[in-house]
Amino acid sequence: MTTRVGVVLFPGSNCELDAMEAVSSLGGDAVVLWHGEATVQGVDAVIVPGGFAHGDYLRPGAIARFSPVMAAVQAFAEEGGPVVGICNGFQVLTEAGLLPGALQKNAGLKFLCTTVDLRVETTRSALTAGAEVGQILRVPINHFEGNYTCDADTLALLQAEDRIVLRYLDNPNGSVDDIAGICNAAGNVVGLMPHPERAISELLGSVDGTVLLRSLLDAPSRV
Amino acid sequence: MVAARPTLWESGRMMFSVHVEVRLRPGIADPAGATIERSLPHLGFEGISGVQVGKSIRFSLEAADEASARVEVEDMCRRFLTNPVIEDAVVAVEALEGSPA
Fold first, then answer.
1. Listing from the earlier edge strand, what are the strands of the sheet with A136-143?
2. Which pLDDT score, from 0 to 100, does residue B101 have?
């Protein structure tokens, strides 16, 4: 069965076409979920893509939380549906309370646009179930506010519950504990700053995002 | 025909001027502040440290009294105007002239 993946489109999203192309190239069926409609249209998985949802006004993700679609995404996540927030999508998921912590501005003052090495830390998330722990992936990053932070109790909980999904090998932005991506307690909601949808072809310099997105496409059949 | 809204005087409510200063919590990266601090000496300003850049949000609020206005603004700060993981708010509430006391 073909997995239908809904890609949320906010005003100011700019990675939705990349995400949809990546899903299609891996054999999935990608549909747009317009932010103003309070439904996920019966899809099997949801991607909240990168960009500047609602212009990042106030804070990245702060306004997106109020878009009608987010109530539907929250309900979908609570039922165990796989949800992945990429870059700005990660910021949206933290602001919406679907993931703990926050993304502060990069340490070192710079907007970062480069490719980094990531280490897969767990296979208990919807995004890494098909990968191997310790696997190294080269994936692009493209952010100014990607420096993950949380209080000490939350960090201890993330570590104890095996919820740190990906770590940077060479921390580019100051993230606590080298965190590049985390998941919720159930593992079905994942947020990460790197862009796996931009690493699905040798033409793009890496195919290492494929194992992540394929895990997402396979996630509904694992539930 | 829409019924006329009761005036503040009739409703017994007051109008407040609210100023919310959103500040990054200690230890949170402030690249704008750091960049300003490094730039000032180029114009000859010496001895400057601790530059912090935040946000200033101002609005008017109708409420029964100053205490309830403050409670409402603090709720706004916690749920929307700040992200408590990385930001603090300093709230100032002042009754506007012309409001019934």
1. A29-34, A4-9, A45-48, A83-86, A189-192, A179-183, A164-168, A112-120, A136-143
2. 52
DSSP state of B65: S
CATH class held by domain B10-27+53-95: alpha beta
Is A15 considered catalytic here?
A: no
Going by their DSSP bridges, the two strands A4-9 and A29-34 should be labelled as parallel
- Set of chain A residues whose Cβ sits within 8 Å of the Cβ of B34: 109
ipTM for the assembly: 0.85
Q: Please work out, in degrees rounded to the nearest 5, the angle formed at the alpha carbon of residue A94 by the alpha carbons of A222 and A175.
A: 100
Is A113 part of the annotated catalytic residue set?
no
Whether residue B86 and residue A174 make contact (CB cut-off 8 A), yes or no, is: no
Residue B55's closest chain A neighbor by CA?
Answer: A58
Q: Which of A87, A121, A150, A183 is catalytic?
A: A87
Predicted confidence (pLDDT) per residue in B41-88, tens digit: 999 999 999 999 999 999 999 999 999 999 999 999 999 999 999 999
CA of residue B64 relative to chain centroid, distance: 19
* Chain A residues whose beta carbon lies within 8 Å of the beta carbon of residue B28: 104, 149
Question: Is the CB of A58 less than 8 angstroms away from the CB of B34?
Answer: no
Predicted confidence at residue A3, as pLDDT, reads 96
Distance from CA of B74 to the nearest CA of A (A): 16
Contact A173, A143 (CB under 8 A): yes
Q: Which residues, 6+ apart, have CB-to-CB distance to A209 below 8 Å? A: A22, A137, A139, A195, A196, A197, A198, A199, A200
Q: Which residues of A touch B80 (CB under 8 A)?
A: 58, 62
Backbone φ, ψ for residue B20 (5° rounding)? -110, 120
CA distance A101 to chain B (A): 6
| Domain topology for A4-222 | Rossmann fold (3.40.50)
